[in-house]
Amino acid sequence: MNPEEELPFASLIVPCRNEQKHIAACLDSILNNDYPRGRLEIIVVDGLSEDGTRSILESYRRKYPFIQILDNPKCYVSSAMNRGLRQAKGGIIFKMDAHADYPPDYLTQCAGFLCKTQAQNVGGKFVVRPGDQTKVAKGIALAMGHPFGGGNYYRWMHARRSPTEVETVSFGCFKKKFFDQHGLSFNENLARGEDVEINARIKRLGGKVIFTPDIQFNYYCRAGLKEFWRHQYSSGFWNVYGARYGTRLTVRALIPLTALLTLGAMTVLSTLFPQSLAVLSLLITLYLIINLGISLKLAWKQKEPVFFILMPIVFATLHLSFACGAFRGTLKKYAHAFQPQAAFAKT
After folding, report:
1. Domain 6-223: which topology?
2. Could you count the other beta carbons within 10 Å of the beta carbon of residue 127?
3. Which residues are within 8 A (CB) of 205 and not within 5 positions of it... i.e. 6 or more apart?
């Protein structure tokens, strides 16, 4: 049988905003996939980009007629997905990240696994890559791939050797029929965590979400400390506040939030009870020892002496920004509990 008759028509939805650095590589990797071009459409949903992203997209649209560009005034990934879903003609839907690139068999592997199983969503493992060639960018990628930074999920994901039913996957390949049957759409109240929330609803409706380690792609981290801080602050905020809209509060959010609250409480107590200052100093010292020890090990392993200085800063940036975001998310979440009619503010 002709491959174009075996594979279903696929709609690839690519949310993006200000992705001048990454969007061309993302689209090139999609275009270089072995999925039959006659069986796919690419829908790029742009959140009113203010850099050079839009001109790059227009150049691709002129060259490839199966690429569409839609506007996303809300700027959220969830609203981008819903605009793409309304336009999509495919029987399967790919959620593609603009901060990633994909191997040549990515689409066919996802579609093939989805079609031969009872899964409603299939996803693979991502490999963390630096967003630039600077030492800072490489340090950020190292931190996000280390349990002390990104948590144990990354290690768990790379330890899997066979397909596993899971709570959620990154991005994913969905059966559109399931969405249509149940009237599913992404929750546009969420700026982050929309994958976790939609997969939770899929599972509640009896669908299966499958992680398969044979599927793999590259994810590029933020390249500078400033944008890394903003990204992790947003992650912390939505990890906690998003629970108001059905996302799952993770241990990764609770640990830095608990540490921040403990340090804050001990700081206040030390002004009233001087002996508390010793406990505060001990906690800070313990964190520094762990941070420096892990950083030294990474610097030795990478043969990069500068990482002994850089990595403690990167780890501290990650932990503090995430914790501050989670703290603000907690305040806002419980403020809404007392003011259920309060207007939703975008973060």
Report:
1. Spore Coat Polysaccharide Biosynthesis Protein SpsA; Chain A (3.90.550)
2. 15
3. 178, 182, 184
pLDDT of residue 344: 36
Tokens standing for residue 123: 């996803």
Please name which of 238, 257, 217 lies closest in space to residue 77, comparing C-alpha atoms.
Answer: 238
Give the Å distances, CA to CA, from 192 to 67, 110, 220, 224, 288: 25, 23, 17, 20, 30
Q: Look at residue 346 in the predicted model and tell me its pLDDT.
A: 39
Q: Give the pair of three-digit tokens for residue 20.
A: 């001048």
List all residues 6 or more positions away from 64 whose beta carbon is below 8 Å from its beta carbon. Answer: 31, 42
Q: Break the chain into its structural domains and give their ranges.
A: 6-223, 244-335
Residue type, 74: K
Question: What pTM was computed for the model?
Answer: 0.88
Question: What tens digit of pLDDT does each residue of 167-206 get?
Answer: 989 889 999 999 999 999 999 999 988 998 999 999 999 9
Please list, residue by residue across 132-171, b when 16 or more beta carbons sit within 10 angstroms of its beta carbon and e when fewer do. Answer: beeebbbbbbbbbbbebbbbeebeebeeeeebeebebbbb
How much is the pLDDT for 275? Answer: 79
> What single letter denotes the amino acid at residue 176?
K
| pLDDT above 90 (res 152) | no
Token duo for residue 100: 């990633």
